[in-house]
Specification:
The chain is mainly beta. The chain is built from 4 helices and 16 strands.
């Protein structure tokens, strides 16, 4: 397949100490980092992720973009909605946080593959400017609700938009499948050229490309937020 493992982390909920590891720190030496990863996999050391990888605080509704080749990991105490492409090659794991298999040995990981696809120029400044909450408002014809582009990065082929809806919002599929998730609010009703259905907080739902238009509105609550992902045309 021509596309790779582009993805992102949308934070549905988080405790105060939640973090996301994303991109490399400035000035690190690739050979030193790979050497430490290989030593850690042999059980000789504990890999010091904080030495090499940026760590960002994560709060509810943050969106971290992860173009293919970007080192990343979600930390504890975060509820992550992962939005990603699904090619035949998936994420190459470099460090497994000292987890052991049933044989008592470190679980198999993919340092050898991974080291060939790491984008070493994705360091702190670039990551902050391009991958952390790169959000701005947009307008869509027929919609008066608040609409925000939250991702993904221009290197990625998926668009994500967040709709803050108090009354109703109008959507067109433009010939491509829409993947949506109710990221805030109790429930929503989806209506169109089909039997209406209700979704609840954190549920994902799919509108196929054959449905040309549909609406979303709050159900048994005053306001909702919906995140929509689709392939850019």
């Amino acid at each position: 397949m021509s596309y790779t493992q582009d993805e992102s982390y949308y934070i549905l909920d988080a405790k105060d100490d939640a973090v996301v590891y994303l991109g490399l720190k400035e000035g690190i030496q690739p050979t030193e980092m790979i050497s430490d990863l290989e030593s850690a996999q042999r059980g000789e050391i504990v890999f010091d992720a904080d030495k090499y990888i940026n760590k960002f605080p994560a709060k509810k509704h943050d969106h971290f973009l992860i173009p293919a080749g970007t080192c990343h990991c979600s930390g504890k105490n975060a509820m992550v909605l992962e939005i990603s492409a699904t090619p035949y090659i998936f994420t190459f794991k470099l460090w497994d946080w000292q987890r052991l298999g049933l044989d008592g040995l470190p679980r198999p990981i993919n340092i050898e593959h991974g080291k060939h696809v790491i984008q070493w120029d994705r360091t702190t400044k670039w990551v902050k400017e391009n991958l952390v909450n790169a959000t701005y408002e947009v307008k869509e014809e027929g919609n008066d609700c608040k609409i925000e582009h939250t991702g993904l990065h221009e290197l990625e082929f998926i668009e994500t938009r967040r709709y803050t809806i108090k009354n109703s919002s109008y959507h067109q599929t433009h010939g491509t499948v829409n993947m949506l998730n109710l990221v805030d609010g109790k429930s929503a009703v989806i209506e169109g050229d089909f039997e209406p259905f209700i979704v609840h907080y954190a549920e994902t739902f799919i509108i196929p490309a054959s449905i040309k238009e549909y609406t979303i509105k709050p159900y048994n609550c005053d306001k909702i937020k919906v995140l929509k992902a689709y392939v850019r045309s």
